Amino acid sequence: xxxxxxGIKSLISGSSTQDHAKGINRIAKTFAVLKSQNRKALIPxxxxxxxNPEMTVQLMHQLVQxxxxxxxxxxxxxxxMADGPTIxxxxxxxxxxxxxxxxVLDMVSAFRKVNADTPVVLMGxxxxxxxxxxxxxxxxxxxxxxxxxxxxxYPPEESGxxxxxxxxxxxxxxxxLSPTTPQARIQQVAKMARGYIYYVSLKGVTGASxxxxxxxxxxxxxxxxxxxxxxxxxxxxxxxxxxxxxxxxADAVVVGSRIIExxxxxxxxxxxxxxxxxxxxxxxxxxxxxxxx
Length: 293
Prior knowledge:
alpha/beta; TIM Barrel; nine-stranded parallel sheet; 14 helices
């Protein structure tokens, strides 16, 4: 399995310098390579600065080493309304270290000094973006190596200027959809979204459980009537069994709260190993879909 993963990463990185010079988006390339291998993406989420700023870039490299295809990096915020208590606590821990949006961008830049290939998606809330300004943010994000941005409280109806600014800098605007999203909004998101769609599989906040796979399957069939880009599913994925089941339905498996729990419960000495072990378990389960296909 390790040799197989290394082979895929070699395939991606073989032309990375040339591709990046041409402005080819890492997210699109990653999904294309995975599709050619009949594999599904694993997208872990961590909060920048949690448990401390010194660990974030190390954690990002550990995630890639353990099988991540795309990294979602949370920008800590004081009022993360869409997040459950686990991710809220991760933001609180990061904010104790005064982690700002500029700090997060600097972390991405540090990650890029070693890894030029793995897509990085920032996930957060509007206030820090508004404070910096669309143009200033997009320009710096691009120069630091950000590939996509998901802002939870930017509704598509009010995101035209935001999406245009990101597009001008070659950054994907990623949107959330949920079981309660009306069809009109689905169609609007389908026109604006780039990279992939993050389908929230449960009603409520991050960390919720009781995932109904039939409901997920039915909704994904509905979404694919309008959406041509990949769809990732998150919320309620806590182990290999669930990850494998979701990978059988979606293009990507997004895991956040379970990883944050591992960070929260691990000592500094155990942290990288425990997170790596968890992600390797998820990676192996997801890849069983391709090996059994």
